[in-house]
Amino acid sequence: MVSASLKxxxxxxxxxxxxxxxxxxxxxxxxxxxxxxxMKLHYIKGVYFFRSEAVQGLSVHDLKEPMFQWLEFYFTxxxxxxxxxxxxxxxxxxxxxxxIVEAQCDKTIDEWLATNNNHSLDHLLAYNQVLGxxxxxxxxxxxxxxxxxxxxxxxxxxxxxxxxDAFSASAFIxxxxxxxxxxxxxxxxxxxxxxxSEFPITSSSRKLFSLxxxxxxxxxxxxxxxxxxQTHCFHVYAKQLHHMVSSTCLPCQRDNISHFEIxxxxxxxxxxxxxxxxxxxxxxxxKNNSLIRENEMPANCMILSSVEADFSVSKGExxxxxxxxxxxxxxxxxxxxxxxxxNEEMSDFIVxxxxxxxxxxxxxxxxxxxxxxxxxxxxxxxxxGVGDEGTVLILPGPExxxxxxxxxxxxxxxxxxxxxxxxxxxxxxxAN
Length: 432
Hints:
Layout: E1 10-18, E2 29-31, H1 34-38, E3 43-50, H2 60-64, H3 67-73, E4 80-83, E5 89-92, E6 98-105, H4 109-115, E7 141-148, E8 153-160, H5 166-180, E9 212-214, E10 229-236, H6 238-248, H7 259-274, E11 282-287, E12 303-308, H8 318-327, E13 330-331, H9 333-340, E14 348-350, E15 356-360, E16 378-384, E17 391-396, E18 406-413, H10 414-428
Parallel strand pairs: 6-7, 11-15, 15-17
Antiparallel strand pairs: 1-6, 2-5, 3-8, 3-16, 4-5, 7-8, 9-14, 10-18, 11-12, 12-13, 17-18
Helix pairs in contact: 7-8, 7-10
């Protein structure tokens, strides 16, 4: 966070709203599935950096104009939270709109990326969003345009996770760019079917690890931490990834283990070292559901799994941990449905940070947002509302001539971040 004694480089915020071009009508309401409600205390933030060529000659009016048509396709995102007679939340499609924030930064894009290389200040570029305490008036989405003194711009997306996962958020903002370029979808989007589940409820005595009950929050959807949390971001380049794989895996293993699994294994082991092998032995893995159909409204469709190591993680082999993550994941979506069934109105939960949570965003099309044919020079995503055990996001890196790397964004207890950075720098020459 920026100290109160220091002037913030971002200032001059102006707020406005954009609504769908046509009235949704029919008094439409969207039912929220149990997985949506499991995510209601989490928020996704994405920040896209563009150089001046991408917005040369464009005004805020030009950026907002395609949004009216954009929100026709994604009409649920302009809705507001209501409660049924039983207290269960749902989305009322009342065309309340998406909130737009305009701001200015006194740095250039290059200065921001150079001096803020761990991206700890990126929260200034995406509006700090919380639903409630007046749920019926709280926008589900904010889009922040921050103009830099070089003429460049950042697009900050603040997205209530109850709407959908990071893949849905990315598809949402990408369509805005496509409509701005004249590429309008030929048909309306389908609403995700809440009655249909690929992970049906099944009776099981197995303990659920990926969800944690928290104190009731009422109508202010924000949980508190018992520890001070800090976010740190770093780039792992293609050559470094190649070295990690070649130095930890046998040739016969390399095709079956992803970069996400290798990086997760390295961070899991390194963090266990900082905790003097006091844990964690159990971690949560969030991965994309490849069966999600295109042209659908946003949905929470990521697969949540738990992985348990029955050996000392700090002394284990990286390949052994990566294999656990790859092959021994226990899917828990059905257990979550079972737990929340009939309990969703009375209890509040968190997923990210309930255990140490690794989120696989390698396949997310974050660089699919284009302005005037220009891709962003850098994209970063974070998650707010993370519990005390922390979360690690692994994202695609900027496109480079020497191959694509990965971006790792960690939100962990502040007293563990520096220790972890030192171990990662010493053992793998990454994280600083």
